Amino acid sequence: MASSEQLTNSAHFSVENIGGIDRTEVDIPPGVTVLTGKNATNRTSFLRSIMCAMGSERASLKGDADEGRVEMTLDGETYERAIKRVGDGVSFEGDGYLDDPAVADLFAFLLETNDARQAAARDEQLRDVIMRPVDVDAIRAEIRRLESEKGDLNDELARIESRKRDLPELERRRNTLREQIEAKREELADLEAKIDDSSRDVEQGRKEQAELESKLQELRQTRSELESIRRKIERQEESISSLKRERSDLESDLDDLPESPMGDHQNLESEIDRLRTKRQDLNTDINELRSLIQYNEERLDAEDYDLLQDGGAAADDGSGSLTDQLVDSDSETVVCWTCGSSVEREQIESTIDRLKALRTEKVETLNDVKSRLEALKEDQREATRKQRRRTELERKLDDIDAELDRRDDQVDALKQNREALTEEVESLESEVESLESADFDEILTLHKEANQLEFEIDSLESDLDEVTGEIEDVEADVQRADDLRETRADLVDELTDQRTKIDQIEGEAVDSFNDHMESILELLGYENIERIWIERIEAPGASEGQTRFELHIVRTTENGAAYEDTIDHLSESEREVTGLIFALAGYLVHDLHESVPFMVLDSLEAIDSDRIAALVEYFADYADFLVVALLPEDAQALDDRFTRVTSI
Q1: Confidence (pTM)
Q2: Domain count of the chain?
Q3: Which of 46, 293, 439, 467 has the most CB atoms within 10 Å of its CB?
Q4: Which helix (H) or strand (E) holds 235?
């Protein structure tokens, strides 16, 4: 299950002044490469050189050098990185193979101090380790954005569906209006015919008739204006009622929002700043401890440290090999590189163990600070959201109040206009009445009826235009609804992917660990271990993503009875295997087999040789290059087809 694009060419490494290495060049072919040798033969330093070439900053500079270098040539590309001493620390320059090596540091570079390997072996915050490379906040923000967009689409589709239900009634109303207009026009045509007949009987040049017809025309226009004003007033009053309902809803929403005193915001900000400072201090302490531990371990492993029982005198007489001079079978002592005195090697190792324990305590404290910091940030985001919502509601209320005032002014103006037009109509009607005479009674009546019909036709045609426009708008919306539904379906799919992304990663990690753990236990044949598995547990009352991984160890007694044990009771070998399989699960769930060609393994001495061989065979299926550092006696158990590097 190595990466889809298999790397078939060897990787060439050129290393200077890294860890305990002065200068070396090594070719690493695809597959398994075993770095075999005794302690203090720079195997770990070379593994860290590979990591450095990949982009990691977990490599150290040789104690007596100011600058080191790693160059890797892989598939025709060359990657070079330099390490330079800067004050009490070091700086890294150049581009490694990976743009961001953080995930590889966690799941591909499995040295003794690897966080994933140690967390599993100690049953520490397993879920947090797996999810560390995942930007959970970004996922949640995207979920909120998609939910908001989907809500807008749902509202729009609901509005369209509501208008679609009105369509049959609108169609009926349009047909009715057309029928009414047609009937009125027929009636008007009959009246106009009668008027023509009557007009032939009346002297055409009489001044009274012309004046009367002018007044009738003016009366019809004035009535039309009056009806138009009435309609405008009705529409404005409907809008005012709608605005008042909206204002009531907004005021209700505003009442539901609690007041958030400024002091609460300031306290949150102050506590967040304090926790950020604490997190930064803890990170600094942890990095310093990691560097200190790494430096001391490499000093112990390096072939040029001053490890002589007599302080180095034996090295001058040329007797025996360097390794024989460095180690005394009875009482191994070391020249302390901090104070220059000779101390027991075990004393330095004990100090390193205490430093590791201190680092573990600080990591636990850091995780707690991160959790508290995240909770406070969420509280702050929620408070900010509510405050923004309150501000938005208050702004909308102000806008509505201003709009209501404007529309009230418009209604007042329209009513004044209506009163004036009403008075004008009454005046015109009086004038028409005064112009009527017996000779013109019939024709005047016909003209009045015609004027009224024309007014009614104009009104009906205006209604017809409005209904037709509304029908066209609804039909356009109905046609657009299919596109909106497709957009919503895509949004729902994307939302489902985002909502399940965290669950998928956690579920895949648990399944991967459980499957591989079952296979490796069967392969390695540990006695009386029935099963080691992780259970994914949802914390009661927790928000989305707040789960934990619980590690279970099931043993069997001599009579076959099963019982649950704790990881504390596993042997060191069993714990190491558990940690390595957990790291492998993270390696696979984050798809590192597709992007990181190298996996490195170190510090497997707690596992017996035959099981190391089986473990290496198992891991070999998942990386293009698997580089393992082993003692000679452990390396003998591995298949002869694997590449050996015996000198660095």
Answers
A1: 0.53
A2: 2
A3: 46
A4: helix 207-256
